[in-house]
Design brief:
Largest interface: A-B, 77 and 85 residues
Helix content of chain A: 40-55%
CATH architecture of the largest domain in chain A: 3-Layer(aba) Sandwich
Strand content of chain B: 5-15%
Largest sheet of chain A: 6 strands, mixed
CATH topology of the largest domain in chain A: Rossmann fold
Number of domains of chain A: 3
CATH class of the largest domain in chain B: Alpha Beta
Strand content of chain A: 15-25%
Strand order of the largest sheet of chain A: 1-12-11-10-13-14
Radius of gyration of chain A: 22 Å
CATH class of the largest domain in chain A: Alpha Beta
Strand order of the largest sheet of chain B: 12-11-10-13-14
Distance between the termini of chain A: 25 Å
Largest sheet of chain B: 5 strands, parallel
Number of helices of chain A: 17
Number of strands of chain A: 14
Structural class of chain B: alpha/beta
CATH topology of the largest domain in chain B: Rossmann fold
Number of strands of chain B: 14
Oligomer: heterodimer
CATH superfamily of the largest domain in chain A: Nitrogenase molybdenum iron protein domain
Shape of chain A: globular
Radius of gyration of chain B: 23 Å
Helix content of chain B: 40-55%
CATH superfamily of the largest domain in chain B: Nitrogenase molybdenum iron protein domain
Structural class of chain A: alpha/beta
CATH architecture of the largest domain in chain B: 3-Layer(aba) Sandwich
Amino acid sequence: MVYILEERQKQVSVAGMNERTIDCNKASLAGSVSQRACVFCGSRVVLYPIADALHLIHGPIGCAAYTWDIRGSLSSGPELHRLSFCTDLQERDVIFGGENKLYGSLIELIDKHLPKAAFVYTTCIVGVIGDDVERICRRVEKEKGIPVIPVQAPGFQGSKKDGYRVACESIFKLVGTKNRPVPAKSINILGDFNLAGELWLLLEYYKKMGVHVNATITGDGRVDDICNAHNAALNVVQCSGSMSYLANMMKDDYDIPFVRVSYFGIEDMSDALYDVARFFKDEEMMEKARQLVKEEFARVMPQLTWYKERLQGKKAAIYVGGAFKAISLVKALRLIGVQTVIVGSQTGTTEDYELIKRLCDEETIIVDDSNPVELSHFVKEKRADIFIGGVKERPIAHKIGLGFCDHNHERKEPLAGYEGMINFAKEIYATAMSPVWRFTRE
Amino acid sequence: MLLRHTTALEIDRKALTINPAKTCQPIGAMYAALGIHGCLPHSHGSQGCCAYHRSALSRHFREPVMAATSSFSEGSSVFGGSANLVAALETIFTVYKPEVVAVHTTCLSETIGDDLTQIISKAVDDGVVPEGKQVIYCNTPSYVGTHVTGYSNQVAAMVKSFSTTTPKKRNVVNLVAGWMEPSDMREIKRLASVMEARTIMFPDMTDVLDTPLNGQYNMYPDGGTTISDLIATGDSKFTLGLGQYCTEDACIKLENKCRVKFETLDIPIGFKATDRFLMSLSRHANVPIPDSLSDERGRLIDLIADSSKYLYGKRVALWGDPDTLIPLTEFLVSMDMRPVYIVTGTPGKLFTERMQEILNNIPEAKYMCGDTADMFRMHQWIKQEGVDLLIGNTYGKYIARDENIPFVRFGFPIADRYGHNYFPKTGYNGAANILIQLLNAFLDHKDRTCPEEKVEWQM
C-alpha cells in the first residue's frame, strides 16, 4: 500500500489479517487532504437543530456562510435556526476587539426574535484576539432574562469530535433549569438530528409502545424541553460520537441511565425499541414493541427481499463521520445482499474499530481519517460498486464510475427506521444499477 | 413560511449580518488556484476552513475539489504555524506530487502573524520543495473583504510569482478571468478562437471543474493554465481583465512588473458587455470580428425582439458578486426590464458608480454593497414592494418560496440546480441562455398560477 502515508500506516487495518489495533483519535497530518472538519463545525452541527434558539456566530463571515442551513434538520415549528446570524468581524474588530459588536448584535437579535435561549459560537479568531465572550453572555443573560450560552469552539482546538463535546457542555448548561411534570415512562432521544424528518418516524414508534418522549436532543429541538430533560427516566443515545458526553454528564449529575442505540437497519431499529421496553421492565410495552416490529417486518421484508435478490454480490465502501453509523450500515447492507469491503470513519474510537473488525468479513479494509487518494485506491483494489459517504466523496465516486449514497447531511429521504430501510434499499439499488455506469466502464 | 422572521420595516442594524450575500476570502483563493494546471491549493489554518471550502466548491460544481490544510492545533496557534506549513509541504510533495502548491492564509494564521514569505523561502532553502516545483502564496485574512477579494489576491499572486518579461514580445493578449463558471471561460475562449486571436487565459478552470466522466479519477485534471503560459504572460502585448473586482490588481501588477498595458472590462454578460469585449479583443489582438459572431449577436437580438412583450417593465431583484451583477444589470436594463433591488456583500465604490450610471432611468432602484447588504435586507425590500423575478444564488430560494416569485439561479453558490457549469452565461449564446431561463421562469409561473380561464395554448 504505497499510497498510504507512512505516518498513517497504523490508521489502516484489514479485518482477519492482523491483530494490531487501529490508531485513531489522532490529529490529521499537516498537508494531508483530510476529509475532516473543525471544533466549530462539530459544535455547530449538533446545536443547530434547536429551532427556537438564536444561533449567533462571533467571527468572520465564512464560518457563518458555510454553516447556513447546510443540514436538513427539520423543525415542526419555529425556523429561527435556519437563519444565519453573524457579527461579521472586520479588521478593526480584530485589532480593537469585537466585544461591543457582539453585545450590540445579541441585544438587537433578542429584542427582535424573542428566542428562548441564545448560543454564541466563538471561532478561531475570537480564541486568539481574546474577547471575553463569557462576560458578554452573562451580561446579556442578566439584561434579557434568557439563557445566553457561550459555545467555546475555536476551530484549531481539535477536530469535529471535540466540537461535539463543546456542544454537549453547552446543552448541559440548560438541562435542569426547568421543571415540568413528566410521565414515569419517559425518555429523551439523544443524537438524532431529524434529517429528512427521521425523528418523526421514531416518535411514532415510541408512541405506539406507550413511551413518552420528553426531549429530543437536538433534532426538532426546543429549549424548554432541554431545560426539562433531567426529568426523563432514560436517555436513548444514537450517534454515540456526538452525544455520549451529554449522556454521561446526565448520568453523573442526574442519575439518568442511558442506552446506546442505532436506528439504521431492521435489526438495530428493533433493538432500539426492545431496549427501551426492557429498561422499563414493562411486559405490556414489550408486547406492543413486538407487535410493532412484527407488523413492520411483515410490511418491509417482501420489498427488501426484492432488492436483495437483485443486489446480491454487489460490494460497498463506507466512509462516514461516526463509526457507530458505519457499524449499522454494514449490517443494513448485509440485509440487502451487499457486502462491505471498506469501512472508514473520521472520528471512530479504538473500541468502535475493534467492533467493526469483528463484524466485517475477512479482508475488509478498515481505515481512520482517510483521504481521497487512499480511498480511490481502496475502492479500485476491492472492486467496490457503491460508495456511501458525504458531500466531498460523491464526485470522486462518480468519476471512478461508482454508485453513491449520501448517508450524511444531504440525505433527502429518511433512512432511519423501517420506512428508512426501504428508502435506503431503493437508493442503493437505484445508484448501483443505474444504466449510466454501463456507458462509462471500459 | 421559512423566513417568517423577516419584517418589511427595516431596522437600523449597526453590527450584524443576517443571511450573508458573501463569504470569506480563502474560498476565492482556493477556487482561483484550481485554475492553474497541476496545482494543489493549500489552506494555512485550521482544518475546518479547508473542509468548508472544499464542500462548498464541491456542492456548487459537483466535482472533486482537492486542497490540503496545515491542520492547526492549539500549539500552532500559540507558537506559530511555521512548523505545520513546512511539514505540510513535505507531505504534499511526497504524496500528492503537484506541480504547484498555492498557499493561502486564514484569519487564524494572519492574526497570529505567520510570515509566509519567510517560512516559504526557508522551506525552499532547506530543500523541502523539490527541483522544478513551485510554491506560491497570497494573504487572505477572512476579516478583510470577501471571497471576491480572495480570488483577486490569488490571481495577483500568479502574476507576482510567474509572469516574466523577456526581450521577445509575443503577439498574444492575456485574458485574466474574473470569478465565473468554467463554462463561461470555455465560451470566452471559443469566441477568441473563432476570431483567431492568440490569447492566454488565467486562471482557467475549464477541464478542471467540469471534467468528463470516464471511469478514471485524476487528482490533477487536464485543464488549468500551465506554468509556461503563466510565465509567458509577461511577454504578451496586452492584458484584458474581465471583471474589475477580481482582476484589476493582477493587471496592475503585470503592468508594473512586465510593462504589459491593460484594460479592465466587464465580464461579457449580455450583448453590450460582449460587444465591448469583442471590440477590445479585436483591437488589441489585431484581428477582425468575423461574420459568424455578428450572426450569433443577430440571433440573440431576434430572441429579445420575439419575447420583448414579456420583458417590458418587469421588476427584478438580484444579488451576488459585483463583477457579474454589473453586466447582468446592464443586460436587463437593455431589454427594458427594471432591476429594482441589487445587493452584494462585497464592498467597493465601483459598484455604486456603475449602478448609478446603469440605473439612471430607474429612479425606484435600490442598491447596496458591503456591510449589512445581505439577503435579510433584500427580503425586507421585497416585502415593502414586490418584484416579478429573482436572480441570484441558491440562498434566494427561501424568499422565492415564501413570496411565490419566479427565481432564476445565477452566481455562486448554486447547490440545488444543475446546468450552471454546463451552459455558459457569457457571450451572445450565454446571453440567450440567460434570457431563455428568465422567460421560462415567468411563463411557467404564469401557467401555474393564472386563473384557469386565462390559460393560453400560445404564449
